[in-house]
Write the structure tokens for this entry.
Amino acid sequence: RTTKWLDKLERISFYIPAYNAQNTISYALDSLLRQTHKIDEIIVIDDNSLDKTFDIVKKYDFVKLIKNQTNLGLGFNRNLAIKNCKNDIIGSIDADVELDKNWLEILLGQIEKNNIVMCGGNMIEKKIDNKINLWRAKYYSQNWGEKFILNPPFLYGCNTLLRKSAWKNVSGYDESLKTNGEDVDFINKIKSHQNYQTIYQPDAKCYHLQDDDIES
């Protein structure tokens, strides 16, 4: 690799879409700060939260905070964040996800390979002492297990590393998909590009902090 390529790799943008995330957003942001590979830029999109999400994020003076005046949903927020990212390599986690400290370093080692434009890691349910969360871990998991996969069926949007150039080439996320499904739709567009490949790397671990009850 050339020095120019290395310099380019070192500049990483990261974004978090957030809605009513006051209980978990600080854990997500703190896990970005602990990464073994430094993150150059962090953006949080507050999707018109009704709780204290905005006030909590505002205390992180290095974070670029964008607040929507109405609730616009995941597809819109992902596009808005990526448009505002200044680097080509862009990481993203949900507001209730906490990264292992080497998550970024591991996935950077994958996205530098030929034709790899997006990578995903292994999200593990953390609060499984709660039986509802344990059920979700078994029947609604957001990972593909413990084996490395080239071109998995899709990548879960909760933790990804993406090339902005690929996002632009496939016209971004579908903004009509407001609460879920935008990740599957986006990967299908990536797959339609014959030169693009994706990777699921289980060694890049992160943890889901969502704490549900039966109703939620």
